Amino acid sequence: MAKRRGRQAEAARNDLRVLAAARQVFAARGADAPVSAIAECAGVGMGSLYRRYGSKQDLLRQLCLLAMRQSIEAADRALLEADAWQGLTGYVIAAVDQSTGALAPLAGAVETTPEMWECSRHGRDRLERLTALAHDQGTLRADVTALDIAWLIELFGRLGPVRPGTHEHNIRQRLLTVAIDGLRAGNPNPLPGTPPSAAHYEGRWAVNSP
Which of 58, 105, 158, 186 could make a disulfide contact with 31, Cβ separation 3.0–4.6 Å? Predict the structure, then answer.
């Protein structure tokens, strides 16, 4: 892939800075957070944001796409691991560190596009492959599904980013390790209820009419 230069590279860096800021803002204030709060957190001007994205809805859609593409990149790296358990758990940790779940409050608040759904399906496909590989190697408990793992990532990621080395980061890493250990094969307690469904997982992103 050709290296980005000049304005294109600067725009890509700004996108990532805005995405990081949005994760922090939405985790703290929810989907109703104003664009001005994101701009202030990112250290960019409102004019720059609107020149790049046009509207709040365009900005939110672009942030969702960026987050999903980051998740896909992490999954692609995980799929290269010969040890499926290492690949899967490495992916979970990376996805939580990315705080993709911090954008979950946008579900139902932003109009989705075919590009977003396609990107989402690609991400789910990779997670299902990671899950299947871990099942085949006998390291992931048989009753855990890809959507169980997707919800786990979202649950921990909803809290937003934290700075490494802080007490909050330490606590979160400890609890995530406890949760990951619960995914291992051989756990004696069966999971309660029924596995999560794709219809429910995706249905949250349908915008409710007023």
Answer: 105
Q: Is 191 helix (H, G, I), strand (E, B) or coil?
A: coil
Domain residues for the domain of 157 are 6-203
Backbone angles phi, psi at 20, to 5 degrees: -60, -40
Total domains in the chain come to 1
Q: In this structure, what DSSP letter does residue 42 have?
A: H
CATH (domain of 68): 1.10.357.10
Residue 22, in any domain of the structure: yes
Q: Which two tokens stand for residue 156?
A: 């921990």
Alpha-carbon gap, residue 169 to 162, rounded angstroms: 6
Share of the chain above pLDDT 90, in %: 40
| CA proximity to 154, closest of 100, 106, 112 | 100
pLDDT, tens digit, for every residue of 22-41? 888 888 887 788 889 988 98
Radius of gyration of the chain (CA): 18
